[in-house]
Amino acid sequence: MRELGLERSDIAKAFADIDELAAQCKFRDCTHDNEPHCAVKKTISEGILTEERLISYQKLKKEAKYDGLNSKQIEKEKINEMFSGLGGMKNARNYIKVKSRK
């Protein structure tokens, strides 16, 4: 999507319905996956919004996050995202060291 030159403002315009619903979610940082009281997921369950539209929105938002970064920075961001459950790459390395000692 970077090649197409999509900007954040374009995403906001194209997915204004999801942005409006997201403002009604209980949590400001709602990912619209498993959080309770998610207005977006509620609208999907009611058949008003499609799951495919949410997936497209999430993909474009994720891609926009890397806008302006060089390849090394993008790689670092992706690795940190992969290991976010462990608190980032540094904590993942420490976890692996501890596990390998046992």
Highlighted features:
mainly alpha; Ribonucleotide Reductase Protein R1, domain 1; 102 residues; single chain
Name the average pLDDT: 83
Shape: extended
Assigned CATH class of the largest domain = Mainly Alpha
Low-confidence parts, pLDDT < 50 over ≥5 residues?
none
CATH topology descriptor of the largest domain: Ribonucleotide Reductase Protein R1, domain 1
Rounded to the nearest angstrom, the distance between the terminal CA atoms is 44 Å
Approximate strand percentage: under 5%
**What does the main sheet amount to?**
none
The total count of helices amounts to 6
Computed CA radius of gyration, to the nearest angstrom: 17 Å
Helix fraction?
Answer: 55-70%
Order of helices and strands: HHHHHH
Helix-and-strand structural type: mainly alpha
Number of strands: 0
The CATH architecture designation of the largest domain is Orthogonal Bundle
Number of separate structural domains: 2
- Please name the fourth-level CATH homologous superfamily of the largest domain: Probable gtpase engc, domain 3
